[in-house]
Amino acid sequence: MARSTEKTSWVPDPRTGCYRPENVAEEIDAAELRAMLLKKN
User: Fold this and answer.
1) Which pTM value belongs to this model?
2) Does residue 14 belong to any structural domain of this protein?
3) Are strands 19-21 and 10-12 parallel, antiparallel or unpaired?
4) Domains of the chain: total
5) Residue ranges for the chain with pLDDT beneath 70
6) Phi, psi (5° rounding) for residue 22?
């Protein structure tokens, strides 16, 4: 695993309350994503 020299802040996840890196994209449930995409059309 490559190490980055960039500093990353850890912030609490609004859903779980657990801390995660600030620059990590929020995970989305596959069923929620499907519903969102179908709603757009």
Assistant:
1) 0.41
2) yes
3) antiparallel
4) 1
5) 1-5, 41
6) -65, -35
What string of DSSP letters covers 2-39? PPPSS---EEE-TTT--EEETTSPPP--HHHHHHHHHH
Q: Could you tell me the CA-to-CA distances from 11 to 6, 21, 29, 32, 35 in Å, in that order?
A: 16, 6, 21, 24, 28
The answer to whether residue 3 is domain-embedded is: no
- Report yes or no: 22 and 9 within 8 Å, Cβ to Cβ: yes
CA gap 5, 9 in Å, rounded:
13
In a domain? residue 2: no
Cα–Cα separations (whole angstroms), residue 27 to 12, 13, 15, 31, 41: 14, 11, 11, 12, 23
